[in-house]
Design a protein that fits this description.
Structural class: mainly alpha
Largest sheet: none
Radius of gyration: 19 Å
Strand content: under 5%
Number of helices: 4
Number of strands: 0
Order of helices and strands: HHHH
């Protein structure tokens, strides 16, 4: 669990935070468990790609690189997918000169939104979503 006031990690069953001294576990004072924090990181990695490209997945991947587990695996998959989307966007830009690239760019955008939402739903602390058609440049 984590302290809501200062964010430091707390042992299970702690009544007060050892760093800031605030009371934890009181009604109206929600605590964030490690599993919930992991799920939040996974959601940020997958859904952040819709609005901010590869940046959220890269940040989560760098934060979780020293702790192997599902957060790191999901962040790696999200980062690989966003790199694939960027490369696809470059190809669409090149093909835009023959007018087919504009249609392909919209299809790529819609596929990115749909697959990011599906990945956020199907991934979690016990599962890693593998994007179809993703170029896996960052390997375990």
């Amino acid at each position: 669990m984590f302290c809501v006031s200062c964010g430091s990690e707390l042992p299970d069953g702690a009544a007060f935070c050892s760093k800031c001294g605030s009371r934890v576990g009181v009604a109206g004072s929600p605590m964030i468990s490690t599993a919930d924090a992991g799920k939040l990181y996974i959601l940020v990695a997958h859904l952040g790609g819709i609005f901010f490209g590869f940046i959220p997945a890269l940040i989560v991947f760098l934060l979780a690189k020293d702790e192997p587990g599902f957060v790191q695996d999901n962040a790696r998959e999200a980062l690989n997918w966003q790199i694939t989307v960027i490369l696809g966007g470059i190809v669409c830009f090149i093909l835009a000169f023959v007018l087919i690239g504009i249609l392909l760019w919209w299809l790529l955008y819609v596929a990115n939104v749909i697959l990011c939402i599906v990945a956020a739903i199907q991934s979690g602390p016990n599962a890693v979503y593998r994007y179809p058609f993703s170029i896996r440049l960052i390997k375990p």
